[in-house]
Amino acid sequence: MIGFFRKIRKKLADDNKPLKYMRYAIGEILLVVIGILIALSINNWNEHRKEKLIEDKLLSELIIDLKGDLEQMNQAKTTGNRIIKAYESIVYSLENDLQMSDSLAQHFNYITTIFIWFNPNQSTYENLKSIGFTILSNDNIRKEIQNLYGVEYRSFEKRQELFNSEYLQTLDPLQSEYLIISKGNFPRDYNALKDNFLFINTLNNMKALHSWNLHSISDFNKTISKLIADIETERIK
After folding, report:
1. DSSP characters for 115-173?
2. CA distances in angstroms from 170 to 69, 76, 176, 208, 234, listed in the order given
């Protein structure tokens, strides 16, 4: 195309037709400009496509991380509910003067279960930080992710640390004074515990502590589940 215009330009110059020559020259320039703009447009489209592929991969991996976190917390909820049931069963048996049994012995074993520590999956989030949050096209999802990992996770971890600290401080004297650890936390003197208000009150306090923690986990699960749902909706678009 450019060679064709050059031939016309030469002919017009030879024929001494400057006005027509100028028109063709301008047309040639416009064609070059249009060609550059088209090339830039194609390049931008390719770059945008690459960024979308990277974004989709990151969001897909983030969903896997978040679902892994949910699984951790669901395990913690299962453990917490089991321990709460153990507290309730032991307190009920003691207050109603029931005899020791194998099932009750299992409940005594559960009350000393160490609660699961939460270890969030942050590999994709750290990767996203290194790439830059601007790779995320949805502003709301970007804010949700930054808030979850930058604020909510830290707050939740602090609550877990507080819970575990309080739990262990209460658990240690309970084990050393009332239970035989080598026999599956079997009570040293079960019948004596029936009139031991301090022991019963301690179990009720620990039950309340676990209930608070389970409530915290449930609220946090809702936050993570909402982000997963929002990401999955965005990926469908």
Report:
1. PPPP----HHHHHHHHH-GGG---HHHHHHHHHIIIIIHHHHHHHHHHHHHHHHHHHHH
2. 27, 19, 11, 13, 46
What would the two tokens of residue 167 be? 């739990």
Q: Are 12 and 24 in contact (CB under 8 A)?
A: yes
| 196-235 confidence digits (pLDDT tens) | 999 999 999 989 988 988 998 899 899 999 999 999 998 7
Which two tokens mark 172? 């240690």
pTM of the entire structure?
Answer: 0.76
Half-sphere exposure in the Cβ direction for 103 (13 Å, CA): 7
d(CA 123, CA 177): 43
What are 68-104's pLDDT values in tens digits?
Answer: 999 988 888 888 899 999 999 999 999 999 999 989 9
Which alpha helices (H) appear in the chain, and where do they start and end?
2-14, 18-95, 102-110, 123-131, 139-147, 153-178, 190-193, 197-236
Distances (CA, A) of 141 to 32, 68, 120, 138: 41, 19, 19, 5
Element (H, E) at 99: none
Maximum alpha-carbon separation in the chain: 122
Structure tokens at 160: 């877990």
Distance, CA of 61 to CA of 37 (rounded, Å): 36
Tell me how far apart the alpha carbons of residues 232 and 229 are, in angstroms, rounded to a whole number: 5
